[in-house]
Design a protein that fits this description.
Blueprint: E1 6-7, E2 13-18, E3 30-34, E4 40-41, E5 44-50, E6 59-65, E7 68-69, E8 75-79, E9 92-95, E10 111-117, E11 143-150, E12 174-177, E13 190-195, E14 201-206, E15 240-241, E16 248-251, E17 258-264, E18 269-275, E19 279-281, E20 289-297, E21 300-308
Parallel strand pairs: 1-4, 8-9
Antiparallel strand pairs: 2-3, 2-12, 3-8, 4-7, 5-6, 5-10, 10-11, 12-13, 13-14, 15-16, 16-19, 17-18, 17-20, 20-21
Amino acid sequence: MLTLTTISNAQLLLNEILVNPPGSDEPFEFIEVKGSPGSTLNGIYVCVFEGDSASAGNSDLVIPLNNITLGSNGLLLIGTTLGYPTVPAATVWKDTLLFGVPGGVLENGNTSFVVIFSPSTILSNVDYDLNNDGQLELPFGASIQDAVGWTNGDLTAIIYGGVVLEQSAGTPDAAVRFYGNNTPFSKPAWYNGDLISSTQFDPLEVSANLPQGAALSPGDNNVPNEGIGFSKVEENELSIFPNPSNGVLFFRNILNTYNFSMYSIDGKLLFSKKESSATVEIPIEIANGFYLIRVESGNKSYKGRITILR
């Protein structure tokens, strides 16, 4: 018999956020949350609060999560299939065309992302901090489950929840929770930065704790992921192009016969083959998405990450 747990005021965490994709914002913005696999969400609201001092506490975006049962990986992707047509089967979609609005819906500057449990409805375009003291005035019985935010350098900005992410320059385009770190309200649980592609961070504008192998993985387990042996991605050793790829990969520095293996983000081996050419063709049945690869040549092993976009 399958028993489902209903999340009321149990923990639901923010997991990954993209506010400023390279190029047009729509339809690629998203917010990803995570909870206990198989649990059902009710009375949960994912909210985006304004941080500008003049309008701090305004609920710019409110997304209710009710009667949603999480899959085996516990992930729920809030976005639109216009931008992400394929995600792992274990990931649940909250498909909303709000993220297809021209120009995007998520502000890039002074912003807080907050997960709230509330027995009463949380409304959009309402000021929940009337006196601008940095404390949200929520309905009776409501509680904040997790929160994270950032500023554009405005010293008068208000960020809710106590977790303010920083980086070497600029304002975060995206933020990622470290895989396996399930601590709410924790700055060390996150890394962040600007993006130079749909998944890769700009090394000149990132948080000080950006890990080797950092990348976005919308709808899939966050990376790096030590549990699958790809915690250190040696991208400087394995030069792959183009990336994203339409399914044909070229290696610049692999000259000898080698073994090629391709894995899903969660470490499942998809296929492997022996090659002697600098070109590898990815089978057509491999869907668009983010993948890990390993190349073994002689006594050397190389690792890398690739986006397939046909």
